[in-house]
Amino acid sequence: MRLSTATSILASIACACGQTLTLSEAVDRSVRQYPSIRVTQEQVRSAAAQIGLARTAYLPRVEATAQADRATHNNIFGLILPTSGILSSVTGPVLNTNSGSNVWNSTAGFLVAWEPFDFGLRAAGVAVAEAGRNRAEAAVARSQFELTALTADAYLTVLAAEQTVKAAQAGVERAETIRRIVDALVRSELRPGADLSRATAELAVAQTQAIQADQAVALGKAALAQLTGADLAQLEVVPAHLLDLPPPEDEPAGTSFANNPILKEQASVIEEAKARLHSLERTYFPKFQLEAMDFARGSGTLLDGRSQGGANGLGPNINNWAVGFTATFSLMDLPGLRAKEAAQAATIRAESSRSDQIVAELRGRLNAAQATLTGARRIAAVIPAELEAARAGMQQATARYQSGLGNVVEVAEAQRLLIQAEINDSLARLGIWRAELAVATANGDLRPFLEKAAR
Hints:
This protein is of the alpha+beta class. The chain has a domain at 21-59 and 122-285 and 356-454: Up-down Bundle (Outer membrane efflux proteins (OEP)). Helix content is 63%, strand content 12%. It has helices at 2-17, 23-33, 35-55, 121-187, 193-228, 261-281, 334-402, 408-443, 447-454; strands at residues 19-21, 61-72, 102-114, 235-237, 287-299, 318-328.
């Protein structure tokens, strides 16, 4: 009985603790569980299967057939244009008969055809499939990178909202204290009743700010839970060192975007387009086939047109074989191929231009992120003085009001300045971390940022 009770207590404590996540754990969970990553991974597997499909072009073609039918054996001399299988062919000599009698016919055989050389067409097809797989793998890396950055930003957003809640709750407590002071003075008829109304209004404003801060925390956790698959009701974030001021010497910097997953994916798109162009260039060549066949025919009809009757013709009994080498060349395909090549070349140029555009956008993001980081560090440097002055101003305004030298407006203004200074103080360090995340995102490498946050 005691053991059961102890177990229940431990379970209750475990539930109360919630599901805590560090920044690294949140990132790992999102990369493992978010559906978009699984989608791109399956696309890689599909692209890898296409490589195997392209390589099957090197295999010989082997076909086998067997047929038995009951039909008339009248034949007529003449030529007809090719049709889509509407008319059946009849072989044998042309006889001057038009009989309704019918006999058994049968056939069986197989054909082996192999293309000994193709001027690089099959290899080009395999190269296209491999380029498609490389592009799919680059898409996975880009999706993981973007999801990591999004998760880290959502994590910092939750931390910032929680710090705002703390400052807002402290503001509510101070506003309640001031309201009680004003209420006592009003009851003693040392202050007018309007002061109590103003103090009550300031308390309501502070409570509203606290409610809005709580709402921001809930929204931030909802976004983080969506990305990580964590239980929203028990989700808790661990600030670790993210509430400390990052050392200036660890500030990420760099202007090379060669390793940025977004640019790498675009490079793979260009390579795939080039592979497709090379495949088109290998298309306008003769096609050679080495063929071997063996077949047998059976017919219940004699050469003079008489029917043998019975089961004659139901089984193949006349055998033939052949070995040959055929070549085909589509002379009029060249204009169409040239048009396709021109379109593919234009696609390559367009994707190359898009790559240049991505570089320009990344450079702009990096410049903006570095400017934001510089500003965030400067703001963090002046915040302590702002906070100290706001606290002193709050104490002085309260003392002046209690001694009858000041009014409630001064106290309310000092209260607002202190709340804002406390919020600025709590967000200043997170602002630096967020700016460093933006710099790392523009550079295309989040590992230094995550390693610094985990230290």
